[in-house]
Amino acid sequence: MQIDKLRGKTLDQLFEAILSLKDLEECYLFFDDLATVNEIQSLAQRLEVARMLREGYTYHKIETETGASTATISRVKRCLNYGNDGYQMTLDRVHNND
Q1: Of 20, 51, 64, 92, most Cβ neighbours within 10 A?
Q2: 96: left (phi over 0), alpha (psi -120 to 50) or beta
Q3: pTM for this prediction
């Protein structure tokens, strides 16, 4: 995993903080303090790109609807195909909670 290079006390603290959030409102409060609007938008965009790729949307349609670059779409697709299944896991869980 790429993130293994960052593994340690400070990253554990970040992930523990995220896991401690109880609802959407707490997420909004925490992420508003933690990251810039652009950083949050980028993360949300990548998750939406992953959802759309799983559902078979074309690059053109994804680019048009999300504003994501083809480079971002390609990176997300590479993670879907060869990554750690993080997108798959979370999208499955979110979909199952609908």
Answers
A1: 51
A2: alpha
A3: 0.90
